[in-house]
Design goal:
It contains 3 helices and 6 strands.
Length: 109
């Protein structure tokens, strides 16, 4: 499911794909989304959207955001294929798995 969000609430505006399960969304009141962009950079965590969907471009799986369902203005604009969702989840899992050179812990202010 792609969504369009109001940027005034969580500093996020644009098209996105919901990756969190509905049961989780209903229980927590939050949704986990990844933005969709037209700017294709060829980075490893991009997932290309196939032709024929409501949106075109790539999903940025390394930019997942958790948004409050009650504070957002959003509407469903279509549905991604299972293949797209699975590729997003696989790339996001890889991104978080520690099988890459990142993982530094630090303080910031």
């Amino acid at each position: 499911m792609e969504i369009r969000l109001d940027s005034n609430k969580n500093d996020f505006e644009g098209s996105a794909i919901v990756l969190s399960p509905k049961a989780c969304n209903d229980t927590t009141g939050f949704i986990s989304v990844c933005p969709i962009t037209h700017t294709v950079r060829g980075w490893g965590y991009e997932v290309s959207l196939p032709d024929g969907l409501v949106f075109n471009g790539v999903i940025l799986t390394d930019q997942i955001k958790n948004l409050d369902c009650e504070l957002e203005v959003w509407r469903s604009s279509g549905k991604a294929t299972g293949e797209v969702v699975n590729e997003c989840l696989t790339k996001y899992t890889h991104f978080c798995s520690g099988s890459h050179p990142w993982g530094w812990l630090f303080y910031y202010s």
